[in-house]
C-alpha cells in the first residue's frame, strides 16, 4: 500500500510550507477578531459561543475562506508536480497513478485539517482560559470543538474537488482556471446554476415521483458549503441527525462523501490515460 | 529472460512521431548503453518502459511483465534515475531516500545509500538547495533503494563533474557485478564506452546500430587514416602513378588528395608499405601521422545521415549494417 507513503510525504511537504504557517495565523487572527466583536457588552450577558460561530465565524470564515483555502491547497497538487518534473521522481517509484491522486487528497486534506484545527483552537484556548478565570461567564468548549471539525471537513471536501481538477489538468494554468471555476461555482453561483438547470430539466422531473421543491432542496444541500452549514447549525442546535431536518442532513452527508470521492475519481480517469 | 523487450513500438505525439517501429532487447544482467543525439527519441522510449507514456503501437515488456498493466510490480524491482526531474524543495535529502525506501517496501538504511552516492553530509539539508549534481546523486540513491533487478538511468551524468561521472560509472559497474541489468541513455559516447556490454544507437526514432563498442568500431572499418604530407607542400607533387601504386596495395581502401597531403585509408599494419610505395615512386614524404576513427566520428557517422565524418574514412555502406 503505497498510498500511505505518498500521503505522508505530501503532508510533510505541505506542513513545511510557509503558507501553512500563514494560514494558521490567519485563522487564529480572524477567530480572535470575531470573538472580540461578539464579546458580551452588557452586564451579566453571557458569552455566546453559538452566536460567535453561527453569525460571525460561520458566514465569513467557514463558508468562504475555508473553501478558498481548500482550493488553493489542492489545485496544484498533481499539475504542479507534473509541470516541475517531481512527478517523474514520484512515478519512478512503485506507485500507481491512483495512489498519487488519492495520496494527495489524503495528505493535503490532512494538512489543511491541521491548519484549521490549530487556527481555530489557539484562540479557543484563550477563550477557555478567560472562562476559567471568570473573565468570561461561559465558553462552550464542546460546541466550539465540534464546529471546528465541521469546518475542517468542509476544507477537506474542497481539497478533494481541487485535487481531482488538478489531476485532470495538463498544465498548471488549466488547473488554476479550474480552481477558480470551482470556487466561483460553489461559493457564488451555485443557486443560480442549479436554478437554471432545474428550470431546463423541469420537463424531465415532472413524470418522476418527486416534486420540484424536493429536487430544489436536494440541490441546495448538494453544495458542500450548504451541507456543512446545515449540519453544523443542527449540531449547534443539538439536533444533529434528529429533528425535522434529519432527511436533509442525511442527504448533505451523502453529498459530502460524494464530493470527496467523485472529483478525484474523474480526475484520475483523465490522468490515468495521459502521457506525462 | 529479457529485462526489456520492445516489439514494433511506435509513439506518435500530436505533432511528431518520436519513435517508429522500434525493436529493442536488453538481456538480463547486461549493461546496455542507449545512445543518440538529443531529440532522437531516447527519453520517449524510456518513458514508455516506465509507463509514463503509452505506445501508439507495439508492446513493451519489462522484467517479463507488461509495462502498462503491471507497471507498479515492475517498478518495485526497478530503480530509475529520470531525466528532467525535480526534487521536493522543502524535504531533506534523507526524507527523499526514506520515501523511496518506504515506497519500494525495502529495508535499506537511508544513510548508507546517501553515503554511497556521496551526499551523506548534506542529508539534512532541504533538497531545494542542492546543486544539479547533488540532485542527480540524490535521485541515484533513490534508484538504488531496494537492490533493483533493473536500473534505468536517463542521462545519468548530466550535471556531474568528471569525478562525479566517474563515480557514477563505478556504481553502474558495481550494480552490474551484483547481477542487476543496467540500461542507460546518453548522448555522449565516451561515457558508455567504459561500462557498456552493448550499445544501441537511436536516430530519429529508429535503432540504426546495435553492437558492442568494439563491434561498432569494426563495422565502420577497423581502419586507420594515414595523413601524409608531401615535401614541396603540394599533393600534386605525387604523380598519378604514385597514387595508383598506393591504391593498388593490399589493405588500402582509398586514397585522396587533400591540399598538401595525401589521405590514405588503410588496414592496420599497411602503413609501412604505403610509405615505401610512395618513396619507390619518387615522392618525398615530409611527414605523416595516423588517426584512428574516433568514437565521436563513429557516433556522428551513425547519427548524422549518410555523410561520414570528414577524414574519418568510413564508407556509408559499411556503416549501415
UniProtKB/TrEMBL annotation, chain A:
One of its GO terms (molecular function) is ABC-type transporter activity. This is ABC transporter. It comes from the Archaea. Signal peptide: none annotated. Keywords: Membrane, Transmembrane, Transmembrane helix. It comes from Halorubrum saccharovorum. The chain crosses the membrane at residues 20-39, 51-78, 111-131, 143-163, 175-193, 250-269. The keyword Membrane applies. One of its GO terms (cellular component) is plasma membrane. The keyword Transmembrane applies.
